[in-house]
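We emphasize that the prediction below concerns an isolated chain of 374 residues; any contacts that depend on oligomerization or on bound cofactors are therefore not represented. The input was used exactly as deposited, without trimming of termini.
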Amino acid sequence: MNIMDFNVKKLAADAGAFLSRAVQFTEEKLGQAEKTELDAHLENLLSKAECTKLWTEKIMKQTEVLLQPNPNARIEEFVYEKLDRKAPSRMNNPELLGQYMIDAGNEFGPGTAYGNALIKCGETQKRIGTADRELIQTSAINFLTPLRNFIEGDYKTITKERKLLQNKRLDLDAAKTRLKKAKVAEARAAIWAEEVTKSEQEVRITQSEFDRQAEITRLLLEGISSTHAHHLRCLNDFVEAQMTYYAQCYQYMLDLQKQLGSFPSTFLSNNNQSSSAPAQSVSAPSVLASASASLPSVSNSIVTSGISELKSLSGSRKARVLYDYDAANSSELSLLADEVITVYSIPGMDSDWLMGERGNQKGKVPITYLELLN
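Result of the prediction step, given as a token string:
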């Protein structure tokens, strides 16, 4: 027998088996043929596997939405992944906002209160963006990848074996149907006893193949419990990654709030608001409230009255520097945080500036960087 004859016979056998299964399936649906039912334990395992697959897909997809809300970006990442290429690096939303704030702060002038605040906020937003990237990367490796491996690996194998089991079951029931018809025909002396014997042998063979396939499928399905245990560990990793991310964000914002709380608040008086107004209008957890209460702050009334008094008199005052300041030109004086300098006003000077002296050095300093001392 040559290869071509073998292939033709194999195709004919496959076509015959397919036709037999199709007839058996149709007759079962029409109630004209009996169906071998799977045992209750196997049915429960199949139901558990389907439920695991359904919810794993939903959790995986929604986690992807949580980590990357932009659908276009998700599609782009999916395409690059399928092409086995690295997606181009782009700024995420916090990083982009941070860059805009930094650029605006430099445009307005880092020596101004608003410009400096924008820069500090921008730097914090960029740090949050970095933490966001780390969360996405960690979650993708420790959480999303194991879920995807189950959907694209283990469950596909289960589906394949389940389909084989269905075919073996149809073969078995088709053989039973032929045996039943052969016995009826034998009773009517329409066929020889050899036909009945042949049908009985076919039933034994198909029954053996069905039982073997049922056992293979059962063993695979019982592995779902191990899958649940593995996914539980992955879920713990995901929660830990989120905890780290939110803790970082909280610390970054706490540090930023501390820096902004150190600003003299005269620049906020443009909106006729006190420096404590934002804290009073926002409801926060007790831990945040206690932390906020411990942050250094400067009263509007003290700063405003002190500077007004200083500008109205010809004398000088001592002032503590709140944070570092780099002079933009030779007419300004560079400052170091926490040092104490002498300041005074010169007629006609811009209201946002004072003259500062440190030993033999002197120059203009921004009032928003100072805390007047009594």
